[in-house]
């Protein structure tokens, strides 16, 4: 049988494919543009035939029809590893649930502890050798399919093929059913315009970046601001080793700054696990031999990250308390996003020769009532800790950068208060005194 004959034998409609799902099954949707829209819609149409089907995904753009069609969650229960804005709203309504994790451990979870009855993942069209590519969802997709009892692929002609070093594709022989979705536009998420605060924080970080450094950039306005500064700087020969590739890297490439030439791990190759951005970003990554997509169990392994000399990791967070604990994923007990790879890269960059890990935040935020609040707080009261104080490294606000490594509690309090907005420093000193983490001789 030829490859095309084998392909046709597995080809079916979305409604036919989801007949393989049974009540009580665990069904995995993968991540971001790996979301199988047609299969999800077909599964939702089976609502009244099924009960207790558990769904898993992460960073999905939505709408997830299987969740939307069943507000009582009698038929489908959705669980996410990392909240997109859409998934966060589902959690806010009690219509979805968060699963704690760090990205480097996801493959371990699947191999050792989790059941996947049916994997449904969107992929690129098959190549001449019989392979489908996971594209921007490479980081988590292969292990899901390897674990699954049944694998259904939804082929989307819009998906790029991103070369890799293993785990970036799946062969036709490993697939049970194939559904063709035609050309379905991908989820695009261009970088937001940086704020003035973003630019101030980026200006404090820029002097810490050397020629030949390898960068991991989080998402948001700060990477955009930093990219603008780097583009106008004398920096050269920067590299990419990142969990999530966004348009920030494309901007660095177009400015001639991203060459990957001086990387000590995989020189000449920009490494990513996931990607979300513009159509231009996806076109740049498509069959680009200078890029490698790989599973997050490798990309996010601190021992792997540390092999990049001068590794610079830059991520955002929501709050830092005076002990140096960092919350990047919750507001109180409300889940905002997830741990993701922050702790992976904080650990790996700290172990890199010449490496540094920055956790960045604005010093304040304004609530819906117009009241200004400090993001440097005396202590947490319900927030989820993303990076523990024992691993917190460089903290950056618009007022500067401080390294917490090796500092005692009073030294940390002093350093962090200097990063707070001046309007809140006196109150933070008073709280530090009450918490007995303020040296009496320190000036106010």
Give short descriptive properties of this protein.
2 domains, 16 helices, 444 residues, Glutaconate Coenzyme A-transferase, alpha/beta, 29% helix, seven-stranded parallel beta sheet, 24 strands, globular, eight-stranded mixed beta sheet
Total DSSP E strands: 24
CATH-defined architecture of the largest domain? 3-Layer(aba) Sandwich
Largest sheet: 8 strands, mixed
Q: What's the Cα radius of gyration?
A: 23 Å
Task: Explain what the structure shows.
With about 450 residues, this protein is an alpha/beta fold. The chain has 2 domains: about 5-180, Glutaconate Coenzyme A-transferase (3-Layer(aba) Sandwich); about 195-435, Acetyl-CoA hydrolase/transferase C-terminal domain (Glutaconate Coenzyme A-transferase). About 30% of the residues lie in helices and about 20% in strands. The protein contains 16 helices and 24 strands. It has helices at about 5-10, 15, 35-45, 65-70, 85-90, 105-110, 140-145, 195-205, 220-230, 245-255, 280-285, 295-300, 300-305, 340-350, 410-420, 420-435; strands at about 25-30, 55-60, 75-80, 95-100, 120-125, 130-135, 150-155, 170, 175-180, 215, 240-245, 270-275, 290-295, 310-315, 320, 325, 330, 335, 355-360, 365, 370-375, 375, 395, 400-405. The strands form 6 sheets. It has an 8-stranded mixed beta sheet, sandwiched between helices. The protein is globular, with a radius of gyration of 23 Å.
């Amino acid at each position: 049988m030829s490859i095309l004959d084998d392909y046709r034998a597995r080809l079916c409609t979305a409604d036919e494919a989801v007949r393989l799902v049974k009540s009580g099954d665990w069904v995995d949707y993968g991540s971001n543009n790996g979301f199988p829209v047609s299969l999800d819609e077909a599964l939702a149409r089976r609502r009244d035939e099924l009960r207790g089907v558990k769904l898993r995904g992460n960073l999905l753009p939505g709408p997830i029809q299987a969740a939307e069609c069943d507000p009582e969650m009698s038929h489908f229960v959705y669980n996410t590893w990392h909240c997109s804005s859409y998934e966060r709203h589902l959690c806010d309504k009690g219509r979805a649930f968060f699963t704690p994790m760090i990205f480097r451990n996801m493959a371990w979870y699947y191999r050792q502890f989790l059941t996947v009855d049916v994997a449904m993942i969107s992929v690129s069209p098959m190549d001449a050798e019989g392979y489908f590519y996971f594209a921007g969802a490479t980081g988590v997709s292969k292990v899901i399919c390897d674990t699954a009892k049944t694998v259904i692929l939804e082929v989307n002609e819009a998906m790029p093929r991103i070369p890799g070093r293993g785990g970036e594709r799946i062969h036709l022989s490993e697939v049970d059913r194939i559904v063709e979705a035609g050309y379905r536009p991908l989820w695009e998420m261009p970088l937001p315009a940086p704020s003035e605060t973003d630019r101030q924080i980026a200006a404090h970080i820029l002097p810490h970046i050397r020629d030949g450094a390898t960068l991991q950039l989080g998402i948001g306005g700060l990477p955009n601001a930093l990219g603008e500064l780097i583009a106008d700087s004398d920096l050269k020969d920067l590299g990419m080793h990142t969990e999530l590739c966004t348009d920030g890297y494309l901007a660095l490439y177009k400015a001639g700054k991203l060459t990957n030439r001086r990387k000590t791990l995989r020189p000449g190759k920009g490494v990513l696990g996931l990607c979300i951005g513009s159509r231009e970003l996806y076109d740049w990554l498509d069959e680009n031999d200078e890029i490698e997509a790989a599973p997050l169990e490798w990309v996010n392994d601190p021992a792997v990250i540390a092999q990049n000399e001068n590794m610079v990791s830059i991520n955002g967070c929501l709050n830092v308390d005076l002990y140096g604990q960092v919350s990047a994923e919750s507001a109180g007990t409300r889940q905002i996003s997830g741990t993701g790879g922050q702790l992976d890269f904080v650990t790996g960059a700290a172990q890199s020769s010449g490496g540094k890990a920055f956790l960045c935040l604005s010093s304040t935020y304004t609530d819906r009532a117009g009241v200004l609040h400090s993001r440097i707080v005396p202590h947490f009261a319900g927030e989820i800790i993303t990076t523990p104080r024992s691993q917190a490294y460089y903290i950056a606000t618009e007022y500067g950068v401080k390294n917490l490594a090796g500092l005692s509690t009073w030294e940390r309090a002093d350093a962090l208060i200097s990063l707070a907005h001046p309007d809140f420093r006196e109150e933070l000193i008073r709280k530090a005194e009450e918490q007995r983490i303020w040296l009496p001789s320190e000036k106010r």
